[in-house]
Amino acid sequence: MPRTALVTGGVSGIGSATAVSLKDAGYAVIVNYFGNDAEAEEFHAKTAIPVFNWNVADFEATQAAIGGIVATSGPIEILVNNAGITRDSMLHKMTLDQWRSVIDVDLGGCFNACRAVISSMRERRFGRIGNISSVNALSGQFGQTNYAAAKAGIIGFTKALALEGASRGITANVIAPGYTDTGMVNRLPDETLRGIVENVPAKRLASPEEIARGVLFLVADDSSFINGATLSINGGKYMA
Ligand code: CAA
C-alpha cells in the first residue's frame, strides 16, 4: 500500500509541484486548496489527484476535513504544510488584518493541520512532516514583518515538534525556499522582481520542481534520521 500524503495549498506553485512529484514517486496524494475552484478543477483534470476545499486557517474546518479524508482514504502519513499567503506592507502602514491573516494562514494553518494528523502518526509510530518556510524567515525582508514572523515561527514550531515525535518514528523538517517562479512572486511589481533576481547569485528564480525535490527528500522513509532540520533551497541568496 502506498503511503498517503496530504499537501496543503496544493493546486498551484510549490504545492502543486510537490503533489505531482509525490504522485510520480508512488505516494497516494491528496491536496487541499482554498477558494480557487477553477484552478483546483484544472489541477485535478490534469493530475487526477483528489482536491479538497477548506481554509487551513480555520481550526474546526481543518479537523473536520482531515477527519473526512482519513475516514475514506486511511491515515495520513506524510503532511506537507505549504499553504501560505503574503500581505506585504511596511510595519507603520500594516493593518491588524494584514498581520492576523498572514499569521493565521501561514503559521496557524501549520498548527491546525499538524494537530489533525499527529495523534494517528504517534499511534502508528510513523510520520513525515515537511513545513514550507521561506528564505525571508532567515534573512528578514523589507515589508514582511508579518510573513517573516509566521515563516520563522514555522521553524521554531517544527523544531519543537521534531523533539516530540522523535521517539515515535515521526520526523518534522523545514524547507526554506528562496524566490520561486510562482504566482506569489510573479505578482510583485516588475521592477521589484528584477531587483530581487539581481540579488540571487543564480540570477534566476527557482522552479517549483526544484523546491519539491527537497520536500521529497525530507519526507522519504529513509530520511528517518533527519529531524528538526531546515533545508534552504535558495540559489545561494542566503546562507544560514
Ligand atoms: N530595502 C530597503 N529600502 C527599500 C526596500 C528594500 N527592499 N524597498 C523599498 N525601500 C524603500 C523605498 O526606496 C522607499 O524609500 P523612500 O521613502 O526614501 O523613497 C521606501 O522604502 C518606501 O518604499 P515603497 O514606496 O515601495 O513603499 P510602499 O509602502 O509603497 O511598498 C512594499 C512597500 C509593499 C513592502 C513594497 O516595497 C514591496 O512590495 N516590496 C517587496 C516585498 C517582497 O519582496 N515581498 C516578497 C513576496 S514573495 C515571498 O514572500 C515568497 C518568499 O517566501 C520568498
UniProtKB/TrEMBL annotation:
GO terms for cellular component: cytoplasm. One of its GO terms (biological process) is monocarboxylic acid metabolic process. The keyword Oxidoreductase applies. Pfam families: adh_short_C2. One of its GO terms (molecular function) is acetoacetyl-CoA reductase activity. Keywords: Oxidoreductase. Residues 3-180 form the Ketoreductase domain. InterPro entries: Acetoacetyl-CoA_reductase (IPR011283), KR_dom (IPR057326), NAD(P)-bd_dom_sf (IPR036291), Sc_DH/Rdtase_CS (IPR020904), SDR (IPR050259), SDR_fam (IPR002347). Gene3D superfamilies: NAD(P)-binding Rossmann-like Domain. Belongs to the short-chain dehydrogenases/reductases (SDR) family. This is Acetoacetyl-CoA reductase. It comes from Caballeronia sordidicola (Burkholderia sordidicola). The lineage of its organism: Bacteria, Pseudomonadati, Pseudomonadota, Betaproteobacteria, Burkholderiales.
